[in-house]
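Field log, afternoon session.

UNIT: design team B
ACTIVITY: writing a sequence onto a fixed backbone
BACKBONE:
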């Protein structure tokens, strides 16, 4: 069990990440690549990723076991500001910290030759590790980045609604079911028994597309607290057969043809930063049934993401939809 202990100051400093973290997504996707579960959601992705992998990943395999601990330095806090910023932070990792975290990785089992070499001379092997990370990211994560962004934006919109409706308490209570808010403690099933005390530092909530089943946090309690958890939008995709994981381009093009016209242009713009179906109907001046139908067509086209929250659904515009609006492509 993981238990995160909040003070009143910590509750005031809870915040949502502004975007998906490319390094967290890359590392966690490496877990998914070797996992045989969730075939509906990740089966096609695994097949296409393996076909694209021309680069070496043996060093990644030594540092990222199939489950359990992996070094904190692989996911620096700077990664929340973008892929290049995260890589710059990784490049500047202190040798003593690198060695300390690699020794934690080697506990409990004889280290592999690659891991032993990395422990003995980390700075020498770091450039190779970064090359492997770049090559793997290009094959596994980069082709799906637009969809990952859309899922995280939908998650942020849902959690933002909870925060506006009931403050930090409601936000924490609205997180996916594997996270249980029993004030002042947030609990989660976890591979080890662990207590994290925030001590007034607050908590960064980082939704993730490739995180599954349980949340993840950093091993070192002195690092800035972050909780990476499965985005609810991704879980909804799994329940509907995973069609949203990688929309077929030909299906998208067919559906885009249906969008030409004034009404759908108005409906897409009316979604704004997020809207329930009722709010969408009111803003666009259409019936509830019409708003629902238009949202369905735009969702099939990859322009809108829909996330269920309680008895309501929340629609958000995807990066593709935003680009289309910016270019005026859907105007009549």
């Amino acid at each position: 069990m993981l238990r995160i202990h909040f003070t009143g100051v910590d509750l005031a400093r809870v915040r949502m990440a502004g975007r998906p973290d490319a390094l967290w997504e890359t590392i966690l996707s490496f877990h998914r690549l070797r996992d045989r579960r969730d075939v509906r959601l990740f089966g096609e992705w695994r097949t296409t990723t393996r076909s694209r992998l021309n680069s070496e990943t043996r060093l990644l395999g030594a540092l990222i076991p199939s489950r359990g601990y992996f070094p904190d330095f692989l996911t620096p806090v700077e990664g929340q500001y973008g892929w290049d910023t995260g890589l710059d932070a990784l490049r500047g990792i202190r040798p003593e910290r690198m060695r300390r975290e690699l020794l934690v990785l080697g506990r409990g089992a004889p280290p592999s030759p690659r891991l032993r070499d990395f422990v003995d001379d980390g700075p020498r092997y770091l450039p190779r590790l970064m090359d492997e990370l770049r090559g793997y990211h290009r094959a596994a994560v980069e082709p799906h980045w637009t969809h990952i962004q859309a899922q995280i934006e939908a998650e942020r919109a849902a959690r933002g609604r909870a925060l506006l409706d009931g403050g930090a308490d409601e936000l924490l209570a609205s997180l996916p079911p594997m996270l249980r808010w029993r004030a002042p403690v947030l609990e989660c099933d976890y591979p080890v028994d662990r207590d994290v005390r925030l001590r007034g530092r607050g908590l960064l909530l980082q939704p993730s597309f490739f995180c599954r089943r349980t949340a993840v946090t950093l091993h070192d309690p002195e690092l800035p607290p972050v909780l990476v958890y499965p985005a609810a939008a991704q879980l909804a995709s799994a329940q509907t057969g995973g069609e949203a994981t990688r929309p077929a381009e030909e299906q998208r093009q067919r559906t885009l043809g249906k969008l030409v016209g004034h009404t759908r242009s108005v409906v897409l713009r009316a979604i704004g930063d997020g809207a329930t179906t009722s709010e969408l109907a009111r803003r666009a001046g259409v019936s509830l049934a019409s708003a629902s139908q238009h949202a369905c067509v735009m969702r099939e086209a990859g322009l809108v993401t829909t996330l269920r929250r309680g008895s309501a659904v929340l629609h958000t515009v995807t990066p593709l939809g935003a680009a289309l609006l910016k270019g005026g492509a859907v105007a009549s």
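LOG NOTE: Confidence is low (pLDDT under 50) at residues 235-250, 328-332.
NEXT ACTIVITY: expression trials, pending approval
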